[in-house]
Amino acid sequence: MSVENLKAYIESGVLELYVLGDLSPEEALQVEEIAIKHQEVRDELAAIENAIEKFAMQNALQPPASVETKLFEKLGISLDEETESVSIPSLTQETKIVQFESHDGKVRTLRYALVACVALLVISTAALFITYTKLTDAHDQIASLNLDKQKFAGIVSKLEYSNQGLSNLVEMNDSKEWATIKMQGQAISPQSKMNVYWNKKNKSVLINYLAMDLPKADAQHEYQLWAMVNGKPVSLGVFGKTDSTSKEALLKMQTIQEAQAFAVTLEPMGGSVNPTMEKLTVMGGV
Amino acid sequence: MYSPALYGVISRIITHTELAEDVLQETFVKIWQSAEHYDNTKGRLFTWMMNIARNLSIDKLRSKDFKNSLKNQDIENNVSFVDEQNKVTFNPDVLGIKQLVENLKPDLQAVLDLVYYKGFTHVEAAEKLDLPLGTVKTRIRLAIIELRRNFN
Prior knowledge:
The complex is a heterodimer of chains A (286) and B (152). With 286 residues, chain A is α+β, with helices and mostly antiparallel strands. In chain A, 52% of the residues lie in helices and 21% in strands. Chain A is built from six helices and eight strands. Chain A has an eight-stranded antiparallel sheet with strand order 5-4-7-8-1-2-3-6, with helices on one face. Residues 82-94 and 96-100 of chain A have low confidence and may be disordered. By secondary structure, chain B is an all-alpha fold. Chain B folds into two domains: 1-75, Orthogonal Bundle (Rna Polymerase Sigma Factor, Chain: A), CATH 1.10.1740.10; 90-152, Winged helix-like DNA-binding domain superfamily/Winged helix DNA-binding domain (Arc Repressor Mutant, subunit A, Orthogonal Bundle). Helices cover 76% and strands 0% of the residues of chain B. Chain B contains nine helices and no strands. At the A-B interface, α2, α4 and α5 of A face α1, α2, α3, α6 and α9 of B. Chain A: This is Anti-sigma-K factor rskA.
C-alpha cells in the first residue's frame, strides 16, 4: 500500500469503527492484516484506543458495591462450571489456580475425612465382631458352668443326704439308748434287709433309708412297718420308695411301747389295717 | 479497576440503573469466560473489554426483556421513568460527559451521541441522520480526533 493510500485508509474512519467494534468480522480481519504490515496504522489504532480509553476513564461511574458482591457470586458459579472444561484461559489462569487449590484443598480434606471414617468403620466392625465372638463364648461358658453347677449341687445334696444318714447310723450304733433291730429278707425277697432303730427310753422308732435294701416298690404300692406286739401286728406307718428323694435319710415312725418283732410288708398305697402276709419282705426279732 | 470505566460506558447506553448493573455483571462474566480469546497484539485490553460491554448493552437494549421491562413499569415510577427516557432530566453522573461532548461541533456530537451513547452502528447512525455512510465514518473519526486533542 502506498503512503497516500495508507493515509486515505487511515482517514476513511475505518480504524475508529474497528476500535468501536463496529466492523464485520471480515473487515476487522482486514484491518488487522494491514495493521501488521504498517506501523502508521498501528500507531493510529493505538492513539484511537488511547483516546477512547481515556474518554471512558474520565467518564467512569462507580458501580454500586452490591454489583461486585453479586459478580463474585456469579463468577464463583461460572468458575465451577469452567473447572470441568479442559481449556483454561491464559489471562485468568492465575486466579483460577487459586480457586482450584482452595477447591482441591477442600476436596482433599473431605477425602481424608472419608478415609478416616472408613478406617474407623472397619475398626469398629472388627471390634464389634471380636466382642460378639467373645460374648458368644462367654454365653457358652456360662451355660456349661451352670450345667456343672447343677450337677455339683445335685452331688452335694446327695452327699449331704448320705452323710446325714451315715452319721446318724454311727450315732445310733454308738448310743446305748437305741436298739438296732436287723430284719432279714423273707420268702419273696431273700436278699432284702433293713434296720429299725428303737429308742428304749422314749420308745420312738426310726428307720434309715441308707440302712435298707428292699426291692423297688411300684407306683401303686409302698412299704408298711409293723411291730409284733404279743403276736399281733401293729402298724407303725408307711414309708416310701427305698431311693427316697426326701432330704432326710432318717424317717420317724410311730412310737411303740413294746414289741417282740418288727416286720415290713408291701401294701397298697396308704397302707393296710392288717398286714398282707404274702408280701412280707423283711422281718426281725428284738 | 476497569469496572467504573465499563460501568460508565454501559450506563450511557442503558440509563436504567438496575439493568446497567446487570449488564456490568454480565460483562465481567463474559470477559472472564472468553479471556482466552483476547489477543494483546490486536489491541488494548480496555478496547476489547469495552466492546464486550457495548455489545452486551446493545443486545440488552434490543432484547425482549428490556422491551418488556419498559412496558411493565409501575404506575408510580412511570412519570420519572418516562422523564428519564425522554431525557427531560439528566442522570447527574452523565452531566460531565455531556458537557465535554457539547464542546464538539453539533454534527460531530450527533454522530458520537448515536454511536457511543446509544450503541448505534455507523450504518444505523447513517440511516438515522440520513447521511451517506462515508460522511458518518468521517464524522466519527473527526469526533475521536477531537477527543484525542482534548486528552493530549
